Structure formats: structure tokens, C-alpha cells
Amino acid sequence: MGRVQDKVVLVTGGARGQGRSHAVRLAEEGADVILFDICSDVEHNAYSLATEHDLEEVGREVEKTGRRAVTAVVDVRDRAALGTALNDAVAELGKLDVVVANAGICPMGTDVPIDAFANAFDVDFVGVVNTVHVALPHLSEGASIITVGSIAGLLAEKAGPAVSMGPNGAGGAGYNLAKQFIDKYTMALANQLAPKSIRVNVVHPTNVNTPMLHNEPMYKMFRPDLEHPTLDDAVLTFPILQGMPIPYVEPDDVSHAVCYLASDESRYVTGVQLKVDAGASLRF
């Protein structure tokens, strides 16, 4: 316990899924947490996103650990609103030590319009850039920036743009491109901030057991042979992505990596791709 004792951490997309797991884990390890989430659905995204109730619930979970929580409903695509919300939160908590740029969507499906490409890219990449850039004025020596990429994006980059479009449609292509850009952006930013002793790293998960994975368009990507695949259908093919014989990792598995990168245990670790992928990158 106490691996991030008395640090102040910002987590975007903090109301559900990976973000919720990261927030609670970091609070358990001693951090105060700033939680941002859009708390509404994004057009063309097939699964429902978190609600204000979800955000309030995570805030209470953080407070049950004895740590402070500041929550705000904010869209990471809106840099001005994001900056205002962060300034207010830092004023309340006194500082900012760690940024976890986690907010993301994945609007899969071959029948979605090109707007799905724009929405995925804007949330998944522009939202990360907005989050980090409004945070930079608050960060000082010893701070840690953690971006969340995706092993799927890296594999799509290796396969080439034609394959990355594949059965994913426009939204999947926007998602993959965003995650590829996150990787490159993180490495470039790490180089810029190293002289200031501010660390920047990216975590690349494989399939994670969250609502982003559990929806029919995603199941369809894994079972294109079926018109309306269910979880029972898709779980048979989920393991094809990983080297290890598992369908997906749990949010906690990614939170362990995030906690390490947020802590002083990784004080000299920067510019690293930390893959929580059960061997997916090795397999392909």
C-alpha cells in the first residue's frame, strides 16, 4: 500500500471500465483522484457510455479509501472546458502529479458513416492531446504522464491500412489510427519532457473485459460468419488475438501497469511501450 501516497492523479474516462479501475486502484495506493468523463453517449458508438450516476459512484469509491475525489462532466474533445475543469480541480486539491489519458471509444461496424471515423479519432487521439496539453502547466519534476493505446492499433499498423479498415469499418479505422498516433505522440513527448524529469509512457492493452469489448459490432468483428453473434459465440474466437490462451485481460491487469508507471518505482522509466497483451504482439 502507499505506492502513490499523496499524489494527485487525473483520470479521463474515469466513470467506467478501465478508467474506473485505474482510479480506484490509485486511490487504494494513496492518491487523490480527479475524475473526468463525458457521461453521455457519442454518436455512432454502438454501446452506451457512462452516466453521471456512474461518475458519482466512482467518486464515492475513491472516498471510501480515505482519499479525496473531484469529479466533473467534461468532453475531452473540448480543450477549453477540459482546461477550466482541470484548473478548478487542481485549485481544490493543490497540485497535479500524474495524468492518465484513458478516455476512448470504439464505434465498430461496417454500416457506420464516415462521421464515426472522425468521432473515434477525435475522442481517442485529439482527446489525449487535449488532456495532456492542459495538464502540462501543472506538472513539474517527477510527474508522470500515462497514455492508453491499444495493441489492436499497433497490429493494424503492421498489417497496413487496407487490412486495418477490414471488417472494422470507418469507426474501427479511426480507432486504430488514433492508437497508432498515441504511440508516436507519446514517444515524441517523452523525448521533449525528459530534460524536465517528467516521464511519459504508453500502455497498450489487448482485449479488456469492459463494455467496449462486449457489444454486438465487436462480436461481429470476431465472428463475421454470424449475422447476430453473442458473447458465447465471440468468446470462442477472442483467444486468437493473444499468444496466451485467454479471451481477454481484466481492467485490474491494466491498472497494475498504470499504478507502476504512476509510482516512483518507475522514476527512471520513460518513453516505454508497456504492453499488457498476453503475448498478442508476439503472436502477430
From TrEMBL:
Pfam assignment, any one: adh_short_C2
Domain of life: Bacteria
InterPro entries: NAD(P)-bd_dom_sf (IPR036291), SDR_fam (IPR002347), SDR_subfam_1 (IPR023985)
Cleaved signal peptide residues: none
Keywords in alphabetical order: NAD, Oxidoreductase
Gene Ontology molecular-function annotations: oxidoreductase activity, acting on NAD(P)H, oxygen as acceptor
Family affiliation: Belongs to the short-chain dehydrogenases/reductases (SDR) family.
PANTHER family: BENZIL REDUCTASE, CHAIN DEHYDROGENASE, PUTATIVE (AFU_ORTHOLOGUE AFUA_4G08710)-RELATED
NCBIfam families noted in UniProt: SDR_subfam_1 (TIGR03971)
Protein name: 3-ketoacyl-ACP reductase
Species of the source: Mycolicibacterium moriokaense
Phylogenetic classification of the source organism: Bacteria, Bacillati, Actinomycetota, Actinomycetes, Mycobacteriales
